[in-house]
Design brief:
The protein has about 240 residues and is mainly β. It has 2 helices and 14 strands, in the order E-E-E-E-E-E-E-E-E-E-E-H-E-E-E-H.
């Protein structure tokens, strides 16, 4: 267990995407990194507020090429309700399925939704950091397969029966309930996102040593505050001095 860093909550600005050896994700809409996370330095904050265009926020995760719905068997996150509440289908995981088999995101694709929060209504989320464990374990019917030929309260097993051989284009974690005045605004922190055993902790991809900076490695790395390096020498200086 990592020690919780008692750092004042602060938005880490200007970070639109991170690609590191361990994971790749991008923030969209009203989303940002904040500190602290759940027993870590950072979490992702996603907000749905009608007063803040585009009124939704989320994190999009890259999945390995060729991943099918049948290949996906673990999906989970730690979450914290910062403002508002769960409800209106938010927050949720959104699994984009390549229904037309063209290999790219297109209008022919459909979504499978996996809802976060207490069953059966996925509303009234408790305070403090929570974890639903593996949301694909079919402990409760929190999978919405309506767009791929199923129903609203469904199981992951049936999703795999319906479209198991179809490829997954991407997976997103979304907050978008501002259409419901009782949930406007709603803000959530998410951390320790588990997608098939790939753990996303939103920590900065800092260089472990000078060798990590070499051969263009510095281009995928940042300082602990997520500021980028100008070149290889800048990266190596940070390893040596912390500045």
């Amino acid at each position: 267990m990592k020690k919780l860093l008692l750092i004042p909550v602060a938005v880490v600005g200007a970070l639109l995407a991170v690609t590191a050896a361990q994971a790749a994700y991008s923030l969209f809409g009203d989303a940002a990194l904040v500190s602290p996370g759940n027993a870590s330095m950072y979490a992702a904050r996603i907000t749905s507020a009608s007063a803040i265009p585009p009124s939704y926020g989320g994190v999009s995760f890259t999945v390995p090429s060729g991943t099918t719905v049948n290949d996906l068997n673990t999906l989970g996150t730690d979450y914290l309700v910062v403002a508002g509440d769960c409800g209106g289908g938010s927050p949720r995981f959104q699994i984009r399925v390549d229904m037309d088999d063209d290999g790219v995101a297109s209008t022919g694709d459909k979504n499978i939704f996996v809802y976060i929060g207490p069953a059966p209504g996925f509303t009234l989320c408790p305070p403090g950091w929570q974890s639903d464990g593996n949301l694909l374990s079919d402990v409760d019917n929190r999978v919405d397969t309506g767009q791929v030929g199923g129903t609203f309260y469904d199981t992951w097993a049936n999703a795999q029966t319906l479209v198991g051989t179809k490829k997954v284009i991407r997976i997103s974690l979304v907050a978008d309930s501002s259409w419901n005045s009782s949930l406007d605004p709603s803000t959530f922190d998410v951390d320790n996102v588990d997608i098939n055993g790939e753990l996303y902790t939103f920590e900065p991809p800092v260089p472990a040593d000078k060798d990590a900076c070499k051969e263009s490695g510095w281009e995928a790395l940042t300082r602990a505050d997520f500021t980028p390096f100008k070149n290889q020498g800048d990266c190596i200086q940070y390893v040596n001095t912390g500045k």
